[in-house]
UniProtKB/TrEMBL annotation:
<protein>
    <submittedName>
        <fullName>Phytanoyl-CoA dioxygenase</fullName>
    </submittedName>
</protein>
<keyword id="KW-0560">Oxidoreductase</keyword>
<dbReference type="InterPro" id="IPR008775">
    <property type="entry name" value="Phytyl_CoA_dOase-like"/>
</dbReference>
<keyword id="KW-0223">Dioxygenase</keyword>
<dbReference type="GO" id="GO:0016706">
    <property type="term" value="F:2-oxoglutarate-dependent dioxygenase activity"/>
</dbReference>
<dbReference type="Pfam" id="PF05721">
    <property type="entry name" value="PhyH"/>
</dbReference>
Length: 317
């Protein structure tokens, strides 16, 4: 059972989706003189200064449009009929569960989702940031952020998903399934100024500060516009959140994709990942609710790159 929206905090995060967790020695790569696969030099400078980078056209348009259709189908909604967008049970959950309030959808496995995960351009971008091609991809869900229904109160807040004082580096990623250039649609928002001056800001925080719900009053927030198929990658030390969709009839859709250095020596982690893919299991962890009917889709076919990103094949062969 997850804590309610009003009581949630760093104490609530007792376990996580295993596919999104690195190790204490996980480190992002310095620029050095190595060639970049996907990022430009300007992208790299933006990444270092602001804590995020946008990879344009990271996933083919046909795949992204297919994912959009899939989300509507999975949720049992008609995109042309807003009367179908607010079934009573989902409306109830949006009032009490933070993940539903923010638009999370418990869909993890489908050929199209894996096609996005095994996109060479997506892999190349993460390989640039980690300094290695030997990565594992996260097995994560999607987002459908609807216009507000009557009586709805949006309660998402600016946060860190990981303790920014922790030793390990981590990254997160958001693939835009539809254009997010209209401010009314909502979308990703962050505080690059805090990323740049974190140590100075942190020194002013109380000893018992809550990194999951930090007080960032007065700090400028930057909304990041995205086009369909763009991939936003951000450093987990970047304070971020989701802006509310305040439009009348538009939706915000996204798929969460990240990659971390592969841990091929961890047999238990590798076996869990393979089983998760093969049996279409929903990961367990904080704020995850499982997919009651996610296994109705067949196991995805993987490319040779996808097999390595899952852990089914070794990067060393």
């Amino acid at each position: 059972m997850n804590d309610t929206i009003d009581t949630i905090g760093k104490h609530s995060i007792r376990d996580r989706n295993p596919s999104t967790v690195g190790t204490a020695v996980t480190r992002l790569a310095p620029r050095g003189d190595r060639p970049l696969r996907v990022l430009s030099e300007g992208d790299w400078r933006h990444w270092e200064e602001n804590g995020y980078v946008v990879i344009e056209g990271a996933v083919p348009r046909a795949t992204v449009e297919g994912i959009g259709d899939l989300i509507w189908e999975f949720e049992g909604m008609d995109r042309t009929d807003p009367a179908t967008w607010y079934p009573p049970e989902k409306s109830r959950l949006r009032r009490t569960e933070l993940s539903y309030n923010a638009g999370m959808v418990e869909l993890y496995h489908h050929q199209l989702l894996w096609d996005a995960r095994q996109s060479p351009r997506v892999h190349g971008a993460f390989a640039d940031l980690w300094g290695t091609e030997e990565l594992w991809v996260s097995i994560d869900r999607v987002n459908l952020n609807l216009p507000p229904e009557p009586g709805f109160e949006f309660k998402s807040f600016m946060h860190f998903d990981y303790d920014p004082d922790g030793e390990a580096d981590s990254v997160q990623g958001v693939l835009s399934i539809g254009d997010q250039v209209d401010p009314e649609v909502g979308g990703f928002v962050c505080i690059p100024e805090l990323f740049r001056h974190y140590a100075r800001w942190r020194a002013r925080q109380p000893d018992d500060w809550d990194w999951y719900r930090p007080d960032v009053t007065g700090l400028p927030r930057v909304a990041v516009p995205l086009r369909k198929g763009d991939l936003l990658i951000f450093n987990s030390r970047l304070c971020h959140g989701i802006r509310q969709n305040i439009s009348r009839d538009k939706v915000r859709m996204a798929q969460y994709i990240a990659m971390l250095p592969a841990r091929e020596e961890d047999a238990a982690a590798r076996e869990w990942r393979i089983r998760c893919w093969r049996e279409r299991m929903a990961p367990q962890g904080y704020s995850l609710h499982g997919a009651a009917h996610g296994s109705r889709y067949d196991a995805a076919q993987l490319t040779p790159l996808g097999e390595r990103l899952l852990g089914l094949a070794s990067w060393r062969n």
